[in-house]
Amino acid sequence: MTTITLPAYAKLNLTLDILGRRADGYHDLCMVMQSISLHDDVTVTLTDADSIVCRCGMLPGDDSNLAVKAAKAFFTETGIVPRGLLIDIEKRIPMQAGMAGGSTDAAAVMHALRALLAPELTTQKLEAIGAQVGSDVPYCVRGGTVLAERRGEKLTTLNAAPRFRVVVCKPDFSISTPVLFNHSDSVALLDHPDTDGMLHAIEERDVLGISARVFNVFEQVLTDEQTEVFDIKDQLITLGASATAMTGSGSAVFGLFTESGQAQLAFHNLRQHYQQTYLAEFI
Question: Of 20, 22, 67, 239, whose CB neighbour count within 10 A is largest?
Fold first, then answer.
């Protein structure tokens, strides 16, 4: 086998809390993460060339692309002699949305290289390699319903959450993650997610309890130019969502639905105004 295609699933933050700034400049986080069915397709092919080529639409194919960075880290950390690679990425996950689009592509590349070259490699080792590539990559290697702590590399797999339907809507603007973290450092974050309550609700498969505890602290530091996030949240609630939040550092907003028909209606309604609107479900 010289080629493999894998799905690279998007993630949502059911909760996101900032515990403080670290001495190294990063932040300690506490997040409940969830994979959804919206995904990119990542194809990795072994070639006879001596380089790594990444084709990903308008995105750069150099080391600034996490998929390329992940491939190089894989060879370095495993000691496997580097091979020529062709990486093709069919993008569906919106970019700069807080859904780990680049990180999940990187994770898929590492999964593909393990399948092609080192099937004995453990998932734990892949996650450790991923931590060198990006903070969300270890979670994307694992996927599912997970508590992520520290920078995001300390992972605890949880029981699978109930299979909510999801409508994701990304407004036309993006939000700078470093700028948002800087804003969070300069103000008092008055509200925080009930992480323990969320963990208990997931353990009990309590749909109402999960919905009641969806929360992202970053929403408290959005600027006046970014208040469209709240407009989308209001629309989702009006259309029947049991919970809404911005995911990650945004700007994508999601709504959780227990009824498929309501999710379909909300998707079609929002799609009329926002081209980057997606219908998915928990996986």
Answer: 67
- The Cα–Cα gap between 57 and 80 comes to 29
Residues 6+ apart with CB under 8 A from 246: 98, 216, 218, 219, 222, 229, 233, 252, 253
Catalytic machinery residues: 11, 136
Q: Give SS3 for 271.
A: helix
Note the pLDDT of residue 24.
86
What are 77's two structure tokens? 């950390």
CA dist 104 and 119 (Å) reads: 20
Please give the helix or strand (H or E) that residue 3 lies within, else none: strand 3-21
Q: What is the pLDDT of residue 63?
A: 78
Contact 87, 113 (CB under 8 A): no
**Distance of alpha carbon 250 from alpha carbon 100, whole angstroms:** 10
Chain position carrying tokens 């998915």: 280
This prediction has a pTM of: 0.95
> What band does 208 get if pLDDT is binned at 50, 70 and 90?
very high
Helices (H), 62-194: 66-78, 101-117, 123-133, 137-142, 177-186
Asked whether 107 and 11 are in contact (CB, 8 A), the reply is no
C-beta separation of 91 from 123 below 8 A: no
Q: Are 186 and 176 in contact (CB under 8 A)?
A: no
* DSSP-derived 3-state class of residue 241: coil
Burial, 259: exposed, middle or buried (Cβ in 10 Å; 0-12, 13-18, 19+)? exposed
Q: So what's the pLDDT on residue 11?
A: 98
Dihedrals phi, psi of 62, to nearest 5 degrees: -95, -160
